[in-house]
Amino acid sequence: MAQIPNLDNAALNLTALREQSQKELLSIIKSIRGKKCLVIDPKLAGTLSLILQTSALKEYGTELRILSADPLQTECPKVVYLVRSQLNFMKFVANQIKNDESKGLQREYHLYFVPRRIVACEKILEEEKVHQKLTIGEYPLYLVPLDEDVLSLELDYSLQECLIEGDTSSVWHVAKAIHKLEFAFGVIPNIRAKGVASTKAAELLNHMQLEDPVSMDNMGIPEIDTVILLDREVDMVTPMCSQLTYEGLLDEVVRQKATSIQQDYAEVKSTNTQSVSELKDFVKRLHSLPEIARHVNLAQHLQSFAAKPAFHARVEIEQIILEAQTYETCYEYIEEIIQKQEPIETVLRLLVLFSLTNGGLPKKNFDYLRREILHSYGFEHMPLLYNLEKAGLVKRQESRTNWPVISRALQLIVDIKDPENPDDIAYIFAGYAPLSIRLVQHAVRSGWRSIEELLKLLPGPHMDLKRVRCLDH
After folding, report:
1. Among 11, 152, 154, 320, which residue has the least CB neighbours within 10 Å?
2. CATH numeric code, 14-142
């Protein structure tokens, strides 16, 4: 499990925020007296390990189990389910209760939704005829500190829910999370938002302040001056690109979250590892740090991965796509890796990147590549391709692309002269500065008025709100 992050150097008192989450969870555990089994959904187990040690739960007579489709194995007379508000988890809970009943087991059942209960989940529990057997509550866990400068809502499927399923409940969660921050650090006077979901979250945040106001009298000067909300849809290009830092490569190659990297490695986690020689030097530097064996092994694994011609070719083709250079070269490369049956994730990320920067693909090319993917990887991927098209990530070309205009205006392509001492965020992607980062830089330095026309070329509306005057009353 991930290590609890050290928050001592955070700009805000995130330790107090985490302690509040600890207190609320322990309050739930203490309220259910006696021996009990705490059943946590798989993702939430990792999230909770960032908040408190599991030993703290065991002090209160608590067994820990991970929720699954299998029957619950415990002798505890009380069962406490702590799960996110997802429909599939309700089926698991219902089936475990029914399985207990079929064995004649009498238990006391509690269910706490994270971060809040929703009607659709409770409806399933009613349909499964277990709702009345449960004592239901909420554990309002919204923001989890991952590092001294990173908070996460841990909403893994929010993009899919918003773009594909039409479920915008995560937007409410974003607003609620920020409002909770305001109770700790004061009303945030400036809100800048770009995108349909972000502007909606900003409106909800204002509404929450009216319904459940943060007292301005006792707070003094707000500790947070500005909140910038960006839809992921505004910048879908960046997550399609290969990260080239140590931490980024771990995420790409090993799929190991940044939070499991020990805090001792704060200096090296953003080290750029573009070449094999640099990786070798990097491994040598790692040897000077304490308890390093695991990271040496990881770095050596990354070294062997980064030395592969396929990796270099992929990074190179990404740069060509981002610079909107030769269309045919990019198209032929994607066609080739489909025929070689390289991992479908690699193929789709490049295809999405290609489509986004070209304003789509000509119908003939679009139809051909789609057909080739299905033939090479199987027709079970048809729903996936349909969803990518529905989300606008891969589409037929209908008009000229705005990408070159956006790229030039925001200086997204940068020549990194000194990779060892970079002076621009573009070093993370070998010369590409993330679009979303450029928008944040403009918002912080001079506001968005200077790029007003450019913002109109990006998806969704934008707003720039000053809240102090209306909230002082």
Report:
1. 11
2. 3.40.50.2060
Rounded CA separation 168/146 (Å): 24
Tokens found for residue 400? 């000229």
Is the pTM of the predicted complex or chain greater than 0.90? no
Listed residue (222, 229, 180) closest to 203, CA to CA? 229
Instruction: Judge whether 446 and 220 are in contact, CB under 8 Å.
Output: no
Domain range annotation of the chain: 14-142, 239-390
Query: Collapsing DSSP states into helix, strand and coil, what is residue 227?
Result: strand
Q: Which residue, chain included where needed, has tokens 């027709």?
A: 379
C-alpha 77/C-alpha 340 separation (Å) is 55
Mean pLDDT of the chain: 88
Assigned architecture for domain 239-390: Alpha Horseshoe (1.25)
Q: Where are the alpha helices (DSSP H) in 149-189?
A: 158-160, 169-185
